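Fresh eyes needed here. Kindly weigh in on this sequence plus structure tokens:
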Amino acid sequence: MASFGYQVLGFGSGGGGQAPYTVRYLVIGGGGAGPSVGGGGGAGGYRTISCKTFEVCGASPITVTVGAGGGTGQRGNDSVFSTITSTSGGRGSTSQGTPPCTSQGGSGGGGYGASSISGNGGSGNTPPTSPSQGNNGGNASGVNGATSGGGGGAGGAGASGSLRSGSTGGSGTSSNITGSCVTQGGGGGGGWLQSNGGGPGGGGAGGNPSTSGTANTGGGGGAGTHPGWDPPNGNSSGGSGQVIIRRLTISSCTTSGSTSTSGCDTIHTFNSPGEYTP
């Protein structure tokens, strides 16, 4: 069903397009960012298949959208290949607002709690996909002091904050689509005085100082430390996403994106928006 529209374009329009063939894909959304004070940013949605079963065909190129990471305290942007959309990562909860605001996404942003106000992490896998494209951000309780949760990752939820501390981001997920195993989609660390690690797979660290999610991993950005720290150090952003398409080399002669080979396959990597020509 996913390729029906391209069949119509390729053969119904009289274009004499490329014969149908199947590909494998990895689509990662842009990561959300942590705020200057608060919870870690959620990783961008992570959608993939383990073998070449997604059909493409037709004379018309397929638009590839690669989502940018969110700026400080903002969610990221979606990545899209054909009918596959990986949702942006949720922004981390901020210390501003009652209750503190967080956001859902491919993976959810971490919660923030202070002054007896608790903040739950944002929901991951929103909107829902099967398999899941991400996980929830960590919760935070403000009953006994400020805490912050880590952003959710593609492979696991963000850790919940403990008393007067931040927490680590959720882990990413590994894929061998390029021929080597690479982990991407880590959540950002929650902010506090100490450094709180980002999730493996490009998540930025929270605390003093916070760091950005790694480019082309969809990693969430880490959140900054508490308001009394001088100078301010919460300036991180989410990591940009990525789209990878793998096909049998004999299926097509396209050179779309940045190409490499592994065995009998050609891999097309998009680190910025473009077009995949079947």
